[in-house]
Design brief:
By secondary structure, the chain is of the alpha/beta class. The chain contains 5 helices and 8 strands, in the order E-H-E-H-E-H-E-H-E-E-E-E-H. Helix content is 38%, strand content 18%. The two termini are 20 Å apart. It binds flavin mononucleotide (FMN). The site of flavin mononucleotide (FMN) has 16 residues, from helix 1.
Length: 190
Amino acid sequence: MNTPDQVRILGISGSLRQASFSTAILRSLARRAAPSMLIDVLTLEEIPFYNEDLDCPPGPSGVAKLKRSVAESDGVLIATPEYNHGMPGVLKNALDWASRPAFQSCLKNKPVAIISSSLAFTGGVRAQYQLRETLIAMQAHLVTGPEIVIGGVHTKFADTDYHDETGWSFLMQSLERLRAEILIRRALTV
Ligand SMILES: Cc1cc2nc3c(=O)[nH]c(=O)nc-3n(C[C@H](O)[C@H](O)[C@H](O)COP(=O)(O)O)c2cc1C
């Protein structure tokens, strides 16, 4: 049953790994944030390499699904690891697809929050800043607040559940900022 303050968030994981911490963080958040925030988690296995020759209607089905999922969401939450001081290629590739048509991206004006994580204490912060730049290029609406950078991520899980209480408080603050931004926009468009 939908309530007026309920928001739909698309969680996009930057990792394809089966046991990915990034995906597990999104799934843990989806469990904890319901029912005020409904988080659907999308992984990027079905997105082919970007090729401008293929970027015309109807386009690859995985890309259509990505764009539809973004368009139908009220906001997006991206959880990503860091690969070689940047965001993983699969995530950049998906964002390149999502960025087209130029200046009409499904992410344009969409509220987006970011989580980065890593086994290292740096928590993927370099990937996070690279990701911000890419989102700015497609005119997404970055929702900033507490920067969610999870270092030593492997020590913060019990089985598949994130269990760091301090971390939870930051994660929930960030999610609440995203939700607040969505509700402000909703009020302005009524
Ligand atoms: C190709 C590759 C490059 C990596 N580079 C970095 C890095 O630059 N900085 C870092 O903190 N961790 C790095 N890592 C470690 C990942 O952040 C770590 O494996 C993380 O848990 C992967 O995310 P996932 O659990 O969501 O799959 C790298 C891992 C791989 C596979």
